[in-house]
Amino acid sequence: MVEEFYSIQGEGFHTGKAAYFIRVGGCDIGCSWCDTKLSWDPSVHPVVPVEQIVARAVSYPARAVVVTGGEPLMADLEYLTGLLKEKGMETFLETSGAYPLTGMWDWICLSPKKNAPPQQDFYARADELKVIIFEEDDFRWADAQAEKVHGRCRLFLQPEWSRREEMMPGIIARVKDHPRWSISLQLHKYMRIP
Predict the structure, then answer these.
(1) Pairing between strand 181-183 and 154-159?
(2) How many angstroms separate the CA atoms of 114 and 48, rounded?
(3) How far apart, in whole angstroms, are the C-alpha atoms of residue 123 and residue 148?
(4) CB 105 within 8 A of CB 65
(5) Angle at 131 between CA 160 and CA 64, to 5 degrees
(6) Are 70 and 93 within 8 A, CB to CB?
(7) Cα–Cα distance for residue pair 44/42, rounded to 1 Å
(8) What is the pLDDT of residues 133-171, one digit of tens each?
(9) Which one, 28, 72, 118, 129, has least CB within 10 Å?
(10) DSSP 3-state percent helix, strand, coil across the chain (nearest 5)
């Protein structure tokens, strides 16, 4: 376990909602712009009993839990989400989709990466498609990914944080020309909250 904390969802469809965040250690996707590289090596993070994680999550007022990483699906999440559901918690997943889906989820945010594309079944399961825009070619990648998801899936373009000023004009123009897309910002960073 890399970290757990109670905060406000800062990006995507659920922006602004209170949630308990569980950041699972381990990721071999290797995005150069990753803002949580500390999560990549699971061996440097302590193993925490699932029951302890769930007890902390349910001690907060919000009934939503966001499981993220790293790449959380490198771990089997069945037991964790099963206990959370028993306690009446909503479970939200943020994943690249590169690994098989485990766990019980109320919301799946698919954030596909070019160097490790999602497994096919994620396109039918994703509630939200969030594509990080780091360079111009990422718009092409975003369009290709959007063609694969179902019609109810929410579509978001999000500037990579370190290049947000450079990429934002292109994102704004793209959303204005293709209004099926919306813009996601990492508002938690603007608000300086974890």
Answers:
(1) parallel
(2) 31
(3) 6
(4) no
(5) 95
(6) no
(7) 5
(8) 999 999 999 999 999 999 999 999 999 999 999 999 999
(9) 28
(10) 30, 25, 45
d(CA 172, CA 166): 11
- List of domains in the chain: 3-191 (3.20.20.70)
Q: Where do the DSSP E strands lie in 60-168?
A: 64-68, 90-95, 107-110, 128-133, 154-159
Q: Could you give the CA distance from residue 43 to residue 140 in angstroms, rounded to a whole number?
A: 36
CB within 8 Å of 177: residues ≥ 6 apart:
none
d(CA 82, CA 103): 7
Q: Per-residue b/e over 69-98, b at no fewer than 16 CB within 10 Å? A: bbbbbbbebeebbebbbeeebbbbbbbbbb
For the segment 36-71, what is each residue's pLDDT rounded down to a tens digit?
777 777 778 888 999 999 999 999 999 999 999 999
Check if the beta carbon of residue 43 is closer than 8 Å to that of residue 1: no
